Every structure is written in C-alpha cells, then in structure tokens.
Amino acid sequence: MFRKLMYIVCFMWLVAVGSVQATTSTYWLGGGSGIGDWDIGTNWDSGTPTAEKYVQINSGAVTLNSASAAAYDILIGGSATAVLSMLGGTLTVGSDIVIGDQAMATGTLNVIDGNMNVASSLIVGQNGAAIISLSGGTISCNALTINSLGLIDIANYGILIVNGDVESDINIYIASKKIVSNGRVSTVAVDYNVSNPWKTTVKAGYVIAREGDLNCDYMVDYKDLAALAEQWLQQRGSLPYAYIAPVPNGENAVNFLDFADVGEHWLENTMP
C-alpha cells in the first residue's frame, strides 16, 4: 500500500514539474530589424511570445498589431518605463496581465484598437505606477484590481468588460479617480448585465446633455444620434446620458421623446 502511494505521489510530482517546465519566460530586448514589433522574434530573448510563455516587458516600447497573439502571463514595467501599444488584432492572455510590476518603474498599456482577452486578472499598478489608455478596442478580464499608483483612462470607443457584477467596485474606482474618461473631462458610464450579459461594462460617458447635445461638443449632429441609438430603450440609471426628456414624460427610458428632443435642436450650436 505504501509503495502504491509513493508511485502516485511521484507521478503527481512529475506531472507538476512537467507543467511548470512547459511554461517558459521571454524578455523584451528591443532592437533588431523590427524595432518595437511584438511579432519580430529577434526583439525577444527566446523568440516571439506564445500562449505558453511568461512575457516580461521591462523597458522600451512594444507594438502589437498582428492578427492574433498570445502569452500566458504579461508583466509590463520591470526595471524602467515600459509601454505596450495594441493597434489591432486579438491578444489572448492565459493568466494575468500586470502593469507597473516593480517599484520605481512605470508601465503603460495603450489600446487603440483590437481585442485583449485576459483569462484571469488585470492588475493596474502592482508595485509601480501604471496607466491604461483605452481609446479604442476592448479589454475583457475575469477580475480587475487598480492599486494606489494605477489609472485607467477610457475615451472614444474604448470598452472595458469585467466578468460578473462588480459595478459597485467600479464606482469606487471612479469616485477615487482611478477610472476616468477623457482625462476627467467626461463622465464614466458603467452597467451590469445591460451592454453584455452577466458582465460589468465600463466606457466613456457623457456629461449632462443640453438641448439635445448628448456628447457636449456644442453641436447636435450625427454623433448625438448615434449615442441615442446605442442606448435606445435602456432604463435610466447607469447610462442616463441620452435620457433628456423630462420626468414624467420621459417614461424612465430612452425613447422617441428623447429622439424628438434631439430632432428639435438638430444641427444647432448649443454653446452657452
């Protein structure tokens, strides 16, 4: 019985060791013929990152614009300022992505377009300063942590999606200015189980509308119509920005009354 038990223990140990050895690390070196490109193997110490590799970008600027890319775990900002910019495509992270990994270093993630899917946690400002500039594309993660030196700035059509109902946590981050929109010029819109089923969605919102000007750019035009269409028939609450018809006539939803208000001021300049 003892011998059988030892066989089982040894087998489990071998499986565990094999699993650990299957995941290797690769470090950003920069230089080479494709300076800045993620998919240039000579920019890394052991080739282009794959789904089985821990990726560390300790310094320098990395650009990812390939159709698809993967890593098991990503650390940005180890020994100095480090930047990862995503211009398109899809990045799949099998575990965590940590921005601002070490003290005295700044990690920056710029998402301009594309989709980033993080299977586990998105950690912003673990030990050092960290900034996420989400001006386009989508970041999806299972969990979100923003520490004291972390900041997420959402603008334009950037979208952050967190699994489950974490709306109250997001609102705490917003209140403490850890999540802002357009450098704090606009508000942050957050909803649970509205934009995406059973997920919390965070994106750039609009300040209080004036005379049909939903995005407060002092002109009532197609941009305001697009914002209204995006929120059509949604209830007033987390996304009130297109809800401009007054209570009780507004019926507590974005509907034809709000559309009529936009139409009434169509192409008007709303400068106070």
3D architecture notes:
With 272 residues, this protein is of the alpha/beta class. The chain folds into two domains: 23-205; 206-272, Dockerin domain (Type 1 dockerin domain, Orthogonal Bundle), CATH 1.10.1330.10. 18% of the residues lie in helices and 33% in strands. The strands form two sheets. Strands 1, 2, 4, 5, 7, 8, 10, 12, 14, 16 and 17 form an eleven-stranded mixed sheet that branches. Strand 16 (188-192) and strand 17 (199-204) form a beta hairpin. It is elongated and about 60 Å long. Mean pLDDT is 84; it is low at 4-9 and 13-21.
Feature tags:
6-stranded parallel sheet, 272 residues, 2 domains, 4 helices, alpha/beta, 33% strand, 18% helix, Type 1 dockerin domain, 11-stranded mixed sheet
How would you briefly describe this protein structure?
With 272 residues, this protein is of the alpha/beta class. The protein contains 4 helices and 17 strands.
Strand content: 25-35%
How does the overall form come out from the CA principal axes?
A: elongated
Secondary-structure element pattern, one letter each? HEEEEEEEEEEEEEEHEEEHH
Helix content: 10-25%
Task: Determine the structural class based on helices, strands and strand pairing.
Answer: alpha/beta
Rounded mean pLDDT is 84
Distance between the termini: 86 Å
Characterize the largest beta sheet: strand count, sense, and whether it forms a barrel.
Answer: 11 strands, mixed
Tally the structural domains: 2
Over the alpha carbons, how many angstroms does the gyration radius reach? 23 Å
- Supply the number of helical segments: 4
Question: How many strand units?
Answer: 17
Low-confidence stretches: 4-9, 13-21
